[in-house]
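Why run this: before we spend reagent on co-expression, it is cheaper to look at a predicted model of the complex and decide which construct boundaries make sense. The entries below are exactly what would go into the expression plan.
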Amino acid sequence: DTGVSQDPRHKITKRGQNVTFRCDPISEHNRLYWYRQTLGQGPEFLTYFQNEAQLEKSRLLSDRFSAERPKGSFSTLEIQRTEQGDSAMYLCASSPLNSGNTIYFGEGSWLTVV
Amino acid sequence: AQSVTQLDSQVPVFEEAPVELRCNYSSSVSVYLFWYVQYPNQGLQLLLKYLSGSTLVESINGFEAEFNKSQTSFHLRKPSVHISDTAEYFCAVSPSPAAGNKLTFGGGTRVLVKP
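The model came back. Tokens follow.
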């Protein structure tokens, strides 16, 4: 399968712990995106990279959140000192530069903070 | 800034009946429009998109959507639904490619197809 891959698919953590999610985009896709989706809501944009450069961050991305894409391939999203409000599905997506604005989503990483 | 409103949070429909999912958007710039589908416990899959040209766009599985600029709408329709169409559907908008393909989604419409 050559789609967007996310790991882990599910994570349960205690409040205050740190968690990290990994995303492997479709090969040769320059752009990589992170979205957050809570129950009953549509996905909300968090941040995106073009190659290794993080070009935009949403105001939703508090100081406890950090995303990296060090070599312009896979990306990680780390949440420090998790709070119950962080419980959500974290979606990664990727696209080539000239895709007609089409982006391709992974299956998401579910986070439950207890 | 853009925003998307999906007027119906849930739409129950009988198998083989038609369905329409409503989507209205607001934007100060030209936008590209998308419908994504999300099956249970899965990520989002692109259903169809409008970038330019014909205002009526179709998907391979029988859905169609019509872009109406004057009404700022992009409603999704299917003349005859199947049980397998049970899913959540999201309308989304994106500004020009220079903005990095960032999507703004509506709140979603959950379609439940009943036999």
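The first strand of chain A starts at residue 5 and ends at 7. The mean pLDDT of chain A is 92. Bring this page to Monday's planning discussion.
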